[in-house]
Amino acid sequence: MSYRKKLVPDLTVDLTVLDGEYAGQFRTRIDEVGERLISVLAPYSDGGIVPLHEGSMLEVTFWDEVSAYTFQSKLIQRINVPVPVFVLELPQMASKIQRRNFVRVAAFYPVLYRAVTREGLTDFKKANMLDLSGGGARFQAGEALEKNSLIYLHLKLPLGEIETPARVCRVDKIEDTSKFTISVEFHEISEKLRDKIIRVVFDLQREMRKKGLI
Questions:
Q1: Paired sense of beta strands 110-117 and 150-157, if any
Q2: Domain end among 98, 115, 130
Q3: Is the confidence at residue 98, as pLDDT, over 70?
Q4: Using CA atoms, how far apart are residues 145 and 150, in angstroms rounded to an integer?
Q5: Which of 40, 54, 70, 102 has CA 20 to 30 A from 79's CA?
Q6: Whether 34 contacts 64, CB under 8 Å
């Protein structure tokens, strides 16, 4: 199936302005879809419409239940009536990323966790995140956790705070310290929460590409 068939009115998309004064990422929705063009609602920032110029280069990202898709496009036309929309080119192809192939990237967001014990849940303890993916995370803690044990994570991410169960899959002692690196897989996580994490990972990858790190 062509990626274009997945583009439908009201679908949420991320527009990334690749350069210029308004470079950055903006969340919006699809307005209409044609054979060669697509219109999206003009995104807002700081209380006003982002005033992109015709000819601006953009990267468009959207998701379905299985994959994420991204393609580069050009702003062809700005229309203000009846609602402000941007008209974009539709390329023949889009890049596809399978959600099952979760990419892990370095990330350093605040982490709180509590373990599940026979007596119930422990108090929250602080940890330092090391990396993140749509499937799990790795963090540094001041104690060893039992492999295959269940914990509850509280992550403070740019797109909002989330709480999710996670299963400990690996524990490694850091040499010459009393600390441990804990690798976990998200357990029974909702697709809505996983979407938030995947979008954060994509944003981190985009920043790393800009800096030439990947």
A1: antiparallel
A2: 98
A3: no
A4: 9
A5: 70
A6: no
167 and 91 part of one domain: no
pTM of the model: 0.56
Measured distance CA(112)–CA(121) in Å, rounded: 13
Over residues 44-90, the pLDDT tens digits come to 887 888 889 899 999 998 876 567 788 999 999 999 888 899 999 99
The whole domain housing 83 covers 3-98
Q: Which two tokens stand for residue 53?
A: 């110029």
Write the CB contacts of 209 (distance below 8 Å, at least 6 apart in sequence). Answer: none
In this structure, are residues 142 and 178 in contact, taking their beta carbons and an 8 Å threshold?
yes
Q: Are 115 and 128 in contact (CB under 8 A)?
A: no
Query: Which residues have C-beta within 8 Å of that of residue 82, sequence separation ≥ 6?
Result: none
Identify whether residues 89 and 116 lie together within a single domain: no
CB atoms within 10 A of CB 126: 11
**130 φ/ψ angles, rounded to the nearest 5 degrees:** -110, -40
51, 73, 98 - which closes a domain:
98
**Residue type present at position 84:** P
Q: How far is it, in rounded angstroms, from Cα 130 to Cα 126?
A: 13
Q: What is the number of residues in the chain?
A: 214
